[in-house]
Structures are given as structure tokens and as C-alpha cells.
């Protein structure tokens, strides 16, 4: 839905704004697991600070653009799923 835009009424500014969807991405909290079971590697729900090691791994697969980071904020991006392209043979 990154190509979609809609009018949004911002109650803080008392004005209408045009907002748009983001390229799909999964945050660090995705890796933390759910109430049904924990994830791996000590990820925690609700984390809002990135980790340099996991960002290096993420960037190897598909680095997010500055626009992706801004659009997904305050969620730190673990996997930019909308930019990953795997070539399987």
C-alpha cells in the first residue's frame, strides 16, 4: 500500500494532511515473539532503539532507505521485506 495516499485530519494541528503508506518492513519487536512463545536472540517487544549488529545483518539482505526509516519511525526496521529480493534456483 506504499503507493496509496489519503487525507488525514491531524487533531494536533487542526489541519488536513496527505499521508501515504510505507514500503513493508518488520521491526525488532517482530523477532521478540508473542504471548504464545518468545523469539530468539534477546529481542524485546516495544523496542525503539536499533542494534548495530542486527542493522549490519539487515543491510546485507536489503538496506532500508532514509525514507523507509522515516516512514516506519519510531519502529526500528529489522527486515525491509518490501525491498528484499531473493533469487532462488
From TrEMBL:
GO MF term set: N-acylsphingosine amidohydrolase activity
Q: What GO terms describe the biological role, i.e. biological process, of this protein?
A: ceramide catabolic process; long-chain fatty acid biosynthetic process; sphingosine biosynthetic process
Q: Pfam families given for it? A: Ceramidase_alk
Q: Which domain of life is it from?
A: Eukaryota
Domain Neutral/alkaline non-lysosomal ceramidase N-terminal residue range list: 12-85
Q: What is the lineage of its organism?
A: Eukaryota, Metazoa, Ecdysozoa, Arthropoda, Hexapoda
The entry's cellular-component GO terms read:
extracellular region; membrane
Q: Which gene encodes it?
A: LOC105428275
Listed name of the protein = Neutral ceramidase
Query: Which sequence ranges form a coiled-coil region, renumbered to this chain?
Result: none
Amino acid at each position: 500500500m506504499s503507493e496509496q495516499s489519503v487525507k488525514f485530519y491531524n487533531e494536533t494541528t487542526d489541519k488536513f494532511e496527505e499521508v501515504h503508506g510505507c514500503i513493508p518492513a518488520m521491526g525488532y519487536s517482530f523477532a521478540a515473539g508473542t504471548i504464545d512463545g518468545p523469539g530468539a536472540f534477546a529481542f524485546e517487544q516495544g523496542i525503539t532503539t536499533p542494534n548495530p549488529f542486527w542493522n549490519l545483518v539487515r543491510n546485507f539482505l536489503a538496506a532500508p532507505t532514509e525514507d523507509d526509516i522515516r516512514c516506519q519511525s519510531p519502529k526500528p526496521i529489522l527486515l525491509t521485506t518490501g525491498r528484499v529480493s531473493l533469487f532462488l534456483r
